[in-house]
Design a protein that fits this description.
The complex is a heterodimer of chains A (about 325) and B (about 300).
Chain A lengths: L5 E12 L2 E13 L4 E5 L6 H9 L6 E10 L2 E2 L5 H7 L4 E4 L3 H4 L6 H12 L4 H14 L5 H5 L8 H13 L5 E5 L7 H18 L2 E6 L2 H4 L5 E6 L2 E7 H6 L4 H8 L38 H5 L5 E2 L5 E2 L2 H10 L5
Parallel strand pairs in A: 3-8, 3-9, 6-7, 7-8
Antiparallel strand pairs in A: 1-2, 1-4, 4-5, 9-10, 10-12, 11-12
Helix pairs in contact in A: 4-5, 4-7, 5-7, 7-8
Chain B lengths: L2 H31 L13 H10 L6 H13 L14 H36 L4 H14 L3 H15 L14 H27 L2 H9 L3 H13 L1 H24 L5 H10 L3 H29 L7
Classes of the chains: A alpha/beta (about 325), B mainly alpha (about 300).
């Protein structure tokens, strides 16, 4: 028995394509507690969405979980029957996606789609369902909800649709909300509004959130802890404070330098090179071909996890190197 | 149904009426421009007889007057007398023939839609399996075959060689083969259409959303996917009905079915101008009405379509 709400252990998810096995998520472990907000950060293709879909068990072919476990409330989700999973999806764990414009069914009204979620997971009937839909739409800040509920997705703006998605995800009061880059497809001003809404709802409802993003700046003030992903692995994890003020992995440092900021006028430094080709992962550290501090050992051996505090860990040879240098073993 | 929708239907309806009027006008003037007339075929009719006949059918009047007379008749569904069958109106002939044609055409269309959508969905759900490949093989083979070829082959195999069916469509049993001939090609086309659009829809983000919400697999197929996947099929229904009806002209001839096709073909041979005009206008009107209904249906299943 563990007292974590969600516990992911050694999760491995691969896509089997003609060119070979793409290890999109490779030996990922983490936990999430009640009311906690976890940020998952990484560049495009680092395996953030695949991690989320693996938790919900909604991978589509040719994707497949090849190892590890996902425990929610001490129930194993990997290998659970579809019938049981359906009772968890949308009721206990909900997800919202990157592009709200394509994530709602174009031929049903917004109200109909929220009603559907309510009917699936509660005993409410008829008028009560409709009332609940209107109530949740009001809560996420949709004006004139009676009229809006009767409209189709194409009659909404992107920001409004994301509010609808949030409403639909939260209407059954799940324990966990997974937000997969909820603001990436939206305008900057709208992004801030959506983040504000999520923050507010989290305070009110107290659910746990897994907040996926490729922009560390967005998750900063909302997350209790953050984990950084690269090429399907978690390369560093820590509290938001640790990650921001004391990053230990060269990749995390690179990500921090590439945050666009309105306050400091310092130049943005994007990380050099292209994201990794998952079919050709280097023998050593996957980040080594792009790392400015790359050493010989980085090319040959995967760095062991180094623990810095109860909360912070990183897998980067630089830390080992610094330690050795400090003790006078290396020049 | 909102005001915008009613407005759209009204607009589309008026446009359909306008198109029908254009068809009537063009048909009328072309028929009158063609040299020769129904009474020329009768050998050596005296000028007096011809004049008398022309006067009887109003053919001696100025052309514009004839046109307006004809038009006001058509509005009342009166296409005038047949020039060949004495004492019978064109309308009566059309109604008699069309009853049979609409019957076999309607059943053929219904079979094509139901079986086509069913097979297409089955193929998509079983994507890349043997079943999918088999369905694709047959639908590819049949889609290109025009109905008169299918009809000839069926006639040869089942009527002549095996003698399972009568070679004429005068009995109900005799209508089975014409119906199959008419439905095979559109059915195959609908199968392919449904399959490819279902595959496309199943990969859409909103299907993933439905799954993440806890929706059951079959509800995903029938509620979330099928309605989106059917949009291209609905667009095809109008043209299909048109093709089933025109296709029936030849199929009816092959199986000797007493449908509108038979009357149409013989009216051309007989130079029965009133009958040719009436049938042409009637069939085009049917096609226009089909397209009109298709547009409305399309709009109902697919709210994204702009109403402007
Ligand atoms: N359907 C698929 N077929 C093959 N490979 C896939 C598929 N989906 C994902 N992958 C592989 O998994 C890797 C991780 O994908 P994932 O969608 O998790 O990235 P991400 O971190 O969410 O990136 P983004 O910020 O672009 O959303 C990709 O690089 C890709 O190689
Ligand atoms: Mg993603």
């Amino acid at each position: 028995m563990s007292n974590h709400l969600l516990e992911v252990n050694n999760l491995k998810t691969s896509f089997f394509i003609p060119a070979g096995e793409v290890k999109a998520v490779d030996d990922v472990s983490f936990t999430l507690d009640k009311g906690e907000v976890l940020g998952i950060v990484g560049e495009s293709g680092s395996g953030k969405s695949v991690t989320a879909y693996s938790i919900m068990q909604i991978l589509s072919k040719p994707g497949e979980i090849v190892g590890g476990s996902v425990k929610f409330d001490n129930q194993e989700l990997v290998g659970m029957s579809e019938a049981q999973l359906r009772k968890i999806r949308g009721a206990k764990i909900s997800i919202i996606f990157q592009d709200p414009m394509t994530s709602l069914n174009p031929v049903y009204t917004v109200g109909n789609q929220i009603d559907e979620a309510i009917k699936l997971h509660t005993n409410l009937k008829g008028d009560q369902v409709h009332k609940k839909t209107i109530e949740i739409l009001t809560q996420v800040g949709v004006n004139d909800p009676e009229k809006r509920a009767k409209q189709y997705p194409f009659e909404f703006s992107g920001g409004m649709l994301q509010r609808v998605m949030i409403a639909m995800a939260l209407v059954c009061e799940p324990d966990i909300l997974i937000a997969d880059e909820p603001t990436t497809a939206l305008d900057v001003t709208i992004q801030a509004q959506i983040m504000e809404l999520m923050r507010e709802l989290q305070k009110k409802l107290g659910m746990s959130i897994i907040l996926i993003t490729h922009d560390l700046g967005v998750v900063a003030d909302m997350c209790d802890k953050i984990q950084v992903m690269y090429a399907g692995k978690i390369v560093e994890r820590g509290t938001a404070k640790e990650i921001f003020y004391n990053p230990k992995h060269e990749y995390t440092k690179g990500l921090l330098k590439s945050i666009p900021s309105t306050q400091n006028k310092k130049k943005l430094i994007p990380i050099q090179g292209n994201p990794i080709d998952l079919l050709n992962i280097p023998k050593g550290c996957a980040f080594s071909p792009r790392c400015e501090q790359c050493m010989k050992i980085c090319l040959e051996q995967y760095p062991a996890v180094k623990v810095f505090s109860e909360t912070q860990q990183a897998s980067c040879w630089m830390n080992v190197f610094k330690e050795l240098k400090g003790s006078g073993t290396v020049e | 149904m909102n005001k915008k929708m009613l407005n759209y239907i009204l607009k589309r309806f008026l446009l359909a009426l306008f198109t029908i009027w254009i068809v009537i006008t063009i048909t009328f003037f072309i028929m009158h421009a063609v040299p020769g007339g129904p009474f020329l075929s009768e050998k050596a009719a005296s000028p007096e007889t011809t004049a008398a006949l022309q006067a009887k059918y109003g053919l001696d009047k100025p052309i514009l007057e004839q046109y307006f007379n004809y038009l006001s008749g058509v509005i009342k569904f009166d296409f005038g007398p047949s020039l060949k069958y004495k004492g019978i109106t064109v309308t009566e002939l059309i109604v008699t023939g069309f009853k049979t044609s609409a019957f076999i055409g309607g059943i053929a269309a219904l079979i094509a839609i139901l079986i086509g959508v069913f097979l297409g969905s089955i193929a998509a759900v079983n994507h890349k399996t043997k079943l999918d490949q088999a369905i694709m093989f047959f639908s590819t083979a049949f889609v290109a075959l025009p109905s008169f070829i299918t009809a000839s082959i069926l006639l040869l195999v089942f009527c002549v060689k095996l003698q399972w069916f009568p070679a004429n469509g005068l009995t109900t049993k005799g209508l089975i083969l014409p119906i199959i001939s008419l439905s095979l090609s559109p059915m195959s086309y609908i199968t392919r259409l449904t399959r490819s659009s279902t595959l496309d829809v199943m990969g859409q983000d909103y299907i993933r959303t439905a799954k993440a919400k806890g929706v059951n697999y079959w509800v995903i197929i029938f509620k979330h996917s099928l309605r989106n996947a059917l949009t291209p099929v609905i667009t095809y229904i109008g043209p299909m009905l048109a093709s089933v009806l025109t296709g029936s002209l030849v199929v009816e001839k092959i199986f000797t079915v007493a449908g509108i096709g038979k009357y149409f073909v013989s009216s051309i041979v007989n130079r029965d101008y009133m009958m040719i005009m009436g049938t042409t206008i009637f069939l085009t009107t049917i096609v226009i009405i089909m397209l009109f209904l298709t547009d409305i249906m399309y709009k109902i299943v697919n709210p994204r379509v702009d109403l402007e």
